[in-house]
Every structure is written in C-alpha cells, then in structure tokens.
Design goal:
- The complex is a heterodimer of chains A (228) and B (339).
- With 228 residues, chain A is mostly helical.
- Chain A has one domain.
- Chain A is built from 11 helices and 2 strands.
- In chain A, helix 5 packs across helix 7.
- The longest helix of chain A is centred in the last third of the chain and has 37 residues.
- Chain B is mainly alpha-helical and 339 residues long.
- Chain B is 63% helix and 0% strand.
- Chain B is built from 16 helices and no strands.
- The chains are: A mainly alpha (228), B mainly alpha (339).
- At the A-B interface, loops of A face helix 6 of B.
Chain lengths: 228, 339
Amino acid sequence: MSTVSYSQIVRDGLWTHNTGFVQLLGLCPLLAVSNSVINALGLGLATTLVLLASNTTVSAIRRWLRPEVRIPIFVLVIASFVTAIELAMNAFWHELYNILGIFIPLIVTNCVIIGRAEAFASKQSLPKAALDGLVMGLGFLIALVLLGALREVIGQGTLFSQAHLMFGEAARGMTLHVIPDYRGFLLAILPPGAFIGLGLLIAAKNAIDAGWQRKASQKTVNLQEIET
Amino acid sequence: MRFSTASSPHWFVGPSVSQLMRQVLYAMLPGLATLVWFFGWGVLLHVAIASGAALASEAVVLALRGKPLRLFLGDGSALVTAWLLAAALPAFSPWWITTLGVAFAIVIAKHLYGGLGYNPFNPAMVGYVVLLISFPLEMTTWPPVNPGVDFASSVQIIFSGHPAEHLADALSGATPLDAVKTQLGLGLGITEIINGPAFGLIGGQGWEWAAMAFLAGGLWLVMKRVAAWQIPAGMLGSLALLSGIFYALDPQAHASPWFHLLSFSSIYGAFFIATDPVTASTTPRGRLLFGAGVGALTYLIRCFGGYPDGVAFAVLLMNIAAPTIDYYTQPRVFGARRD
C-alpha cells in the first residue's frame, strides 16, 4: 500500500473524495435526515464519532485480523461503537434521539464506515487511520449540514430551528428567520427535495472543480508562454 | 395533370418540432376557450403568465448552456409546457404559483435532464405535482362555475393574492372529483352526491363541457397523427374497465364509469398529457400498455389514494416505466424469425 501524506488525507476526506458529494456513500441517512440543520448536525456528529473510533480500532488490531473473517470483525467493532453512541444520545439528547430515530442504529449499515475500515484503516498506520476517520466523518458532516441548511431555508425559511434539542434551552434564540413571513415550500422538506438538493449541491461542487481546473490549465499555458 | 411516383429513394418530409408544437397549441384553443367561458378571465391570465415565465426561464437556461436561443425558443416546446400546466391550474391561484411551477418544469424537469427530447418525465406534470404537494391549499381552491369576476378583479386577485371582500365566497368551490371523495367519506351515496350543486349532466357542471372541448381538440391531434391513438385508447379503456367493475359491484360507493371518463382531467390527461412523444412509450403495443397503466393508476389513486385526482401522479409513474415497456414490446422486424 502506497503511503499517503497527512495533507492528502485531509484534502481527500473534505473535498476530492467527500463521501456525500463524490463517493455518494451513506446516501440513505444523508437524504433522510437532512431536512433541518440541527438534525443534520446530530447525525453528522454521531457518524463522525463512530467513524473516528472504528477506523482507530480497526487500524490498531489490523495485525491480528485474518482476511477470511475481517468483515464480521469490522461489523462487530462498528456495531459496538454505534450502540455506545446510541445509548449516550438517548441519555443526553433524548428529544433529538427521538427525532433521528432509526437512523442512529442504522449508522452501523452506513457504507462509508465499513468502506473506510476495509479500504483504508485495515492497511494504514494508526494515526493516519484516525485522521482519515475524522476527516471522512467531517466531510460527511459538511455535506449533511449544507444539504440540511439548503432544505431548511427553502422549505421553511429558517436556520437552526429547534436548536434547543442539541444545545440546551439557552439555544432557543439561535433560530434564524432567514426569510421573514415565509409561507414555506413543502417540497424541499419532503424526500424529493433531498434528491433535488443533493443533485444541485453535487453540480455546484463539480462546477467549482471545473473552474479550478480551467484556472490551473491557464496558468500552465501562461508559464509555457513565458518560458518560450 | 399526372404526378407519377418515381422509384426510390424518396425524400421524406416529416413534420418539424415547431410544427408539431404549434398543432398542440391549436388543439388546446377550444378547450381553453371553454375554460375561460366557465371559470373566468383567470384562466387566460394564467396562460399569459405561464407563457412569459416559460419563455424567460427557457431563455436563461439556453443562454447558460450556450445553445442557440432563436432556434430553441422558436420551437414552441416551452409554450406547450406552459399552456399544458396553466390549463391544469385553479383559475384564481396567485401569479407566483404559475411562475414557480413553470420555472420548475422548464429548468429542473426539462433542461437539467438534457433539454427537449431527453427529459424522462413530462415537464408540465412535474411542475403540477411540485405545486400540488407544496401548496395544497392554493392548488385545491377551485372557483365554482361562472364565478362572475370581471377582468380587473381577476387581475387584482391573481397579482395581489387577496380577493376583494365580496368575492371571497365566489372563489372557493370543490372540483367534482374532490366533492365525490369528501362526501363519500361523509357516508353519502353517489346518487345524492351527483345531484349536488357542483354537478351537471354527467360530470361536474362546466367541467364536462371543458372536457368535451378538449376531447374535440384531442381527436383532431389523433387525426393529424400528432398524438398516438393507442395512448388515449389504452388510458380511457382501462379507466372505463376498472371503474365499470367497481360500479357494477356497488353503484352507491363508486362513481360511474362515464363520470370518470368525462371528468376533465381524464380527457385532458389522455389526449394532451400522456401523449407527450418524449416521455411516453414509442412502440404500438407499448403505447397501449402505457395508456392502460396510466388509466389504472389514475383510478386507483382517485378511489383509494390520498388525493382526489391522480392523473398527474399516474403519468409520472408510467413515465418511469416507459423505457422498460419499450424494451419488452419491440415490434418484430419484418421477416425476422419469431422466437
């Protein structure tokens, strides 16, 4: 396995191989829970924690893993972390836990997590695997929160509604009414809005990439002109 | 004078896209006129708003995509989408409903999928469904027949969103299908419901005549071979069959087949919406199947679904199935072996 630099890991996780926008893994929770920023934040943080913990553990035990049984072991590791986080959320953020419902235990089946364990953590050193878990999780979190913000603003004209579910009663005032007296656009909150929103975000990311590429190629052309 | 037919090759002159689109627009004229006659100036205003919004959003997207403006704007496809959607909207819904629906239809349902000829879903119906599920209140407030609103008040209602005091009652009615659904839910029998104020000879008052006018336009389209006859035949056939079976079982709990057939949306959907050559099946047998699917789904949604009418949903659902239907109904090439 070729060695990957730390900066490369960060760049891959957050942008070039972003799980939400490029790898398109874990779409089920991404589409289902992104109807508001707070829901997205809750699930994104839980997934990031699981990813960090499972990647670290898998990397730490990789020398003793027999290839024949590696997948069941991955699943066991991931399931135990998910169970721990599910119990913690049930205890500390009970209302948020109720809203996210089945999608917390379903983190076990999120293909991002088992994918990173198989493709990266089981072959890399512990610090690299841990960093990969963290940035891949953050990439997923960013995708979730962006989509959640887009759908919340278009759907009901607010941001951070029900922030108290996550940050306690003091955060009730955090809700921003981006568009005052908005009568709502239900489609954005409903499942089709998730698909359309994700499609638009992916298109925006591709457009940004294309713009960078154009700029980079122009620069090389300019350099060549100077040299000749 | 004698025109002798020379031997092949022949030069084939098929109708161009803009010719086809223009014929669809002509075929809609009698129907639209009837709607204006029964439901007031609002219909006409919505057609105008929709046309403007369609041309504007088409122009913007074409410019973004770097396509020749004149060629694609002139083909009339955007206007057809606009008119098809506008005719399906409640006559006095606010202007932004039309604008939003048409913009969604053109930008998302048509151009994001590749533009004219590439869209898998009927753009007008995508726009309609988006509006229906997002703004159920505005989309189900239909005026009763002959609302008696003059042109100036129509403009004011549509653009300000607030009808003048004395007109508020004149603007809320229920469509016949809606009335049947809610009143069946209240335990009334069909004969009682049909004798209610919203109903005419067979279908809804006024609606049945609009349906007739669109039927005439649709038959002309079929005669001109702009619309394939198999699709309306399949759709109305399966709708009649299903509603006939249920009507025979219990005529008090299910509306009659002729009520279903002559409801405005059945005729309109069968001849103008489902026959969209881009999104429907293209093989002869496939078109029959496609139409039958639309008819069956329409009946199921009307009678057992949450919405009073289901033509739009039925058409969209069958749009997804059209490529599969085409795959399995390819006609045998002449002379090829039968497997």
